[in-house]
């Protein structure tokens, strides 16, 4: 097993790094990071077999997606799709349908791509978010889509930090995006990322600007929404800056995890039978500015990347309690913002 970490390339990073994984339980360790792909600002990427689809910002005028394929032990670039302006902030994937979904925070554009077996990209459709319900915070100066991926029923969902909204779409048979519904969060919430429960009738949206999670019952047939409750990801007495970032839910649907950039922690919540949440733990990331974290297929091991301190931390996860235990810290990896396990 290996761990891939990518991020910004503003300082010493050269792109995407691979870290070997060895040992089990308390003796599990990550080895030295090796640069396997040289690419500019791979702040988010997805993997499908020998293919890696990564954000790329090769110059000041353009940004987009690049595709690398593993051949003879080396990754080679097979395609790149660039557009004027900034690069996307998020890449989603459907490996069965060979679809990619990108959200561009700065340009306000969400896009759907098709890719073939070799990784070559075809743009199917895109939509530009407008500044319709902008929040009151300085960061909400425009529409800012920060996430674009699939719902449990196979529709598409986008979190818009600028508009404080969650937008739902359908990709029709003509491969065109049709807008279906909007959920409006409280002003200044700053919707960033979202996860869904196992039944597919409740979602949990993380607000970057508010450092909160809102639980919402919903129905993908009639698109009715019902807010259940909202929870803080940071302590009540925290007065310094914080931005909630990644949110993940365990496969059994029993636990939710959110990273805090500022409080520099991962908040762990238990999911109750009625879809409400209960705080289990806040654990230090042993570094600064944890934008992303991820787990292996068994969800036994968790790795978080700390962007500002150029390090990662490895945890052991208790599947019964949801709690994390730090088993390795100060793992050197530069400017990390994205974590992906490779089994």
TrEMBL record:
Superkingdom: Bacteria
Gene Ontology MF terms in the entry: 6-phosphogluconolactonase activity
One cellular component (GO) term of this entry: cytosol
Pfam families noted in UniProt: Lactonase
Family as reported in the entry's similarity comment: Belongs to the cycloisomerase 2 family.
Database matches in PANTHER family: 6-PHOSPHOGLUCONOLACTONASE (PTHR30344:SF1), 6-PHOSPHOGLUCONOLACTONASE-RELATED (PTHR30344)
Name of the featured protein: 6-phosphogluconolactonase
Originating species: Lactobacillus amylolyticus DSM 11664
């Amino acid at each position: 097993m290996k761990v891939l970490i990518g991020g910004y390339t503003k300082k010493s990073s050269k792109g995407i790094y691979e870290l070997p994984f060895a040992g089990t339980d308390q003796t599990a360790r990550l080895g030295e990071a090796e640069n396997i792909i040289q690419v500019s600002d791979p702040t988010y990427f997805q993997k499908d077999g020998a293919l890696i689809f990564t954000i790329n910002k090769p110059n000041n005028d353009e940004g987009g997606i690049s595709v690398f394929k593993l051949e003879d032990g080396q990754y080679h670039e097979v395609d790149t799709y660039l557009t004027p302006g900034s690069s996307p902030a998020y890449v989603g994937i459907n490996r069965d349908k060979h679809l990619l979904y990108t959200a561009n925070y700065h340009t306000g554009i969400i896009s759907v791509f098709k890719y073939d077996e070799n990784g070559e990209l075809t743009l199917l459709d895109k939509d530009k978010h407008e500044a319709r319900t902008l929040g009151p915070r300085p960061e909400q100066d425009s529409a800012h889509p920060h996430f674009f991926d699939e719902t449990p029923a196979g529709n598409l969902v986008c979190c818009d930090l600028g508009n404080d909204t969650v937008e739902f779409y359908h990709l029709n048979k003509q491969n065109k995006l049709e807008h279906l519904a909007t959920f409006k969060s409280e002003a200044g919430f700053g919707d960033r990322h979202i996860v869904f429960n196992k039944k597919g009738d409740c979602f949990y949206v993380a607000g970057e600007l508010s450092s909160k999670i809102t639980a919402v019952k919903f129905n993908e047939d009639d698109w009715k929404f019902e807010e259940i409750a909202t929870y803080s990801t940071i302590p009540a007495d925290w007065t310094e800056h914080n931005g909630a970032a990644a949110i993940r839910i365990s496969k059994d649907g029993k636990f939710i995890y959110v990273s805090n950039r500022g409080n520099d922690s991962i908040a762990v919540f238990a999911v109750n039978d009625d879809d409400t949440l209960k705080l289990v733990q806040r654990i230090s990331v042993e570094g600064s500015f944890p934008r992303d974290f991820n787990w292996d297929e068994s969800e036994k091991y968790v790795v978080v990347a700390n962007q500002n301190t150029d390090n990662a931390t490895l945890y052991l996860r208790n599947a019964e309690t949801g709690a994390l235990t730090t088993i390795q810290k100060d793992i050197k990896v530069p400017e990390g913002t994205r974590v992906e396990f490779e089994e």
